[in-house]
Amino acid sequence: MPFECPGSKNLRQPKPEYVKCASCGQEVEIWTDEVKTACLNCKAVVMRQDQTSCLEWCKYAKECVGEAAYNNFLKNKSILMKDSLLKELEAYFGSDAKRVNHARKVMGFAEELLKREKGDWHIVIPAGILHDVGIKVSEAKYGSSAGHYQEKEGPAIAREILAKLDFKKEDIGEICEIIAHHHSPGKVNTTNFKILYDADWLVNLKDEVDLKDKAKVKAVIDKVFLTDSGRALAKNIYLLSPPCMRGGEAL
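^ that's the sequence the OP posted. Answer follows.
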């Protein structure tokens, strides 16, 4: 009888499990190869708790469960990671919804760029969510106009959050290095840094230049963006899209 890894059985042979909806208490069915579903009673999103799997470290993981199941596993890990980090960010900033909303927008653009650039989602997405985490302390120490100090203050706060969520030590180091220089291009030249930097600019551009001045907008885009994908997306949004699609909820 051929050996079957027990750690991957629930992905190779999914089965239904039942968890309670945090919103209404209704028991909700969720399959073992899923991480979220909708409660049939109240329509709230129900998330499965993150569970460690041998697929995270086994070098034969893809061969063991097949490419489709392995890619689904990575997708689910990404969903859980984002959910956990966003909850930590919301708890840290409290009532400051502006900071959390900005992080969500940067994360969204980072996901778009990751489809086109060969970056590492487990580095870029956490960096996108936590890149401005130092601004709360920097403004408390140096005043509201001293936001640039967030590069100094951010890594220690991000490191604590990432360690709490059991990120790998080497990943924490790279994420924190990006956070420490996310306003300082040239100090870190990795693809992961460039994707985060461009994602941040895709959100901030509308606040940095008069969008009515097309020539100026194009000049800034050509100058500041570090990836071809980021540059192309910025031109599509800020030069080709109608005004109603720029800024606000569209970004």
